[in-house]
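Hi Y.,

Following your request, here is the sequence exactly as I used it, all 284 residues.
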Amino acid sequence: MTAYPAPENPHSLALAYRVLRWLVWLFSPKYELRGTEHLVDGPCIIVGNHCQMNGPIAAELYTPGPHKTWCIAEMMTKGEVAEYAFNDFWSGKPARSQWFFRLLSRCIEPLALLIFTNAETIPAYRGGRAYKTFRQSMEALEEGRRVVIFPECYTERNNIIHEFQTAFVDLARLYYRKTGQAVTFVPMYLAPRLGIMQYGEGVAFNPEAPGDGERDRICSLLMDRITDMALALPEHTVIPYPNIPPRHFPRSRPLVQAPARVLGEPLLIDSPGLERVTGSPKKR
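Below is the corresponding structure, written out as tokens. Let me know if you'd prefer a different format.
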């Protein structure tokens, strides 16, 4: 049986969280890590398929080395968990049972706060608070950590992955402006039904390229490499980003492209400037 992957600093965590983390590991899929040679020494940005709740759980438990994972901020904010949980997880349930899922959404708030405020997470804010996400991500990279992001949106690209929301790429530009170092984006494909966490060849950020073009280039390459990794594995059931019933989960083969490619909307609306993220003028 796969050994339990202990947290980085277990004694700094709440006892209830440590117990819950062990229970989640015990009852969740176990993974064989492949392609770890693609993980560069030092900081990088790992970009993977969300797999509903499987992606964040696997990232917390199995990502090698010090790391932080983006988590939607509403799931870490008191008073905002219930509304987000209902809309994202259960709003599609039949009308006759929605009262139950609204009640359940309120009941899980203490559990969600316990999990997401103790795990190695960075809250992913939208709109005017997005600078907080970029600031914490910059700090993590400067500490030599890997930052894990699951940027899929609801627009389908193919039966393996959905289109990426693109604003996360700006983290590399901000990091370059401050440090002069071009960070690498490493694609990750998660196959819970096979028990495989596969890393692929990285995509280096090009600081000379225009912002919009570089966003599109990096996202397209990452989505293509994740798709290729999935197709290279034995045929399997793909767990998609949307919370749909398991009977509707697609198979990995044959590859089925969406009718038209539509780039995802930015995850963090209006990526902040370097001055707001760091509190200091940009490096000339």
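The radius of gyration is 19 Å.

Thanks again,
Q.
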